[in-house]
Amino acid sequence: MSRPHTKWSRVALVGIGASLIVGVFVLAFSWPSVTSSVHGIPLVVSGTGAPADTIAAQLTENAGDQFDVTRVDSRDDAVAMIESRDAFGAVVADASVPEVLTASANGVVVSQIFTGLATQLQLSFTQQLTAQGVAADAVPTIAVTDVVPLASTDSRGTGLSTLSFPLVIGGMIGGVVVSLLVVGVWRRLTAVVLYGAGAGTLVVAIGQGWFGILQGDPVLNGVAVAASVLAISAFIVGLTSILGPRGIAIGAVLSLLIGNPISGAAQPWQFLPEPWGAIGQFFPPGAGATLLRDLSYFPAASTAQPWLVLAAWIAFGVVLMSVGHFRNRAVITPSPESLEETDAAPALV
């Protein structure tokens, strides 16, 4: 027996609705790059004399909100702030010739910005010395020093930037598979933990051992990858335990269409429209991307926040699994009172 033809009204609704979904995906993934702008870059100016005061004042006045300028006393202090990722770059003005410090491990875009800043400073420095009678060809060149360079195996940083998206997809896949194929709160929890551990091992083996994208301690990197994947998969499994299949959709939307675009994986989160960049650091994609970059290139940076964010999402997922499990048991298991009422009820003839 053939199925009846679909009503034309339903055909129109399905077609238009599906196209709206495409529009949502395009908006989610293009919005960050279209609306981002260079602003709030943490910049350090080192030095205690008049040249440092002048450069700091010029940057604050002319650069607008492009830089967030902080003063330190020495070049060593500036390097320490860059290595701890409290600053993305610095202008060293405590010597006769200024120097620009950068960290390409923050991304190629950041390096280009500081290279452009060095060019502007060179022009001003040349004008100042030529006005004092120094020949133009005798003016010293302002050096640009990469304090934290990218690894030669990922010299453009594209590998590290794009690694975040597979981890988001991986977390979603794990959550969906465990939700559909595993029953029981302890079994589901064991499954997602094993999935996260396996994902961490494989990603580090490929991303660090093979391609050289990740740097630093492979064990810590593996734990970070496992936590990033587990934070998403445990949350989706937990939602599904309570809401059923709708939990998969909600978890996917939060992870893929909200958390991933504002993660700051492809560019510094400071570039995103406020306050979305900061908010993105409290979602698993943003916390995971920041954690992997810090572990790979900025071991002196504090990683407490991303670890805590990932741990909180994992714990939230476990709580949701437990709530869903015990709620379902309460629904399925009849109470003693209901059994007594059933026994006492007269049989129907």
TrEMBL record:
Which named protein is this? ABC transporter permease
Q: Which UniProt keywords apply?
A: Membrane, Transmembrane, Transmembrane helix
Looking at the record's lineage, which domain of life comes first? Answer: Bacteria
**Which sequence ranges are marked TM in the entry?**
12-31, 163-185, 192-213, 219-240, 247-266, 307-326
